[in-house]
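Researcher: We're teaching a course module on how sequence relates to structure. For the next exercise, students receive a sequence and then see the predicted structure as tokens, so they can try to spot secondary structure elements on their own. Here is the exercise chain.
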Amino acid sequence: MGKPTTPRRKRTQRDYTLAFKLSVVELVEKGEMTYKQAQKRYGIQGRSTVLAWLRKHGQQNWSLTRTPRMPATQETPAQTIKRLEKELEDEKLRTLYLNMMVDDLDQHYGTQLRKKLLAEQPGLFKPVVKQR
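Model: And here is the predicted structure for the students to work with:
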């Protein structure tokens, strides 16, 4: 598909050919211009017209973003594993910290939070054993 020609006048919705729409979509998806630049360059009046074309005719999933951008490069499986391991470690630390807070509240302020929670949902929390 070649590049669309630059019009000398504002266009109306009725005169966009499928070939023109596909050309604009291709230019945006290749990163040669943003959808706003295409809108301005080709005199497309509707603010969401190019976005609608991208959603309908594009190869990428434009429906997930409000302001379409070129998608970031995909994670490799190794990068995904590393990210998930970090998230898991962060969650383990967060859980440990929260358990320590509940133990301290129960011990120092007599709140019995763990006792109440364990009675309501058995197996939810495991007590933290403090080493002194």
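Model: If you want an answer key for the exercise: The chain has two domains: 13-64, 77-120. Residues 77-109 form the longest helix (33 residues).
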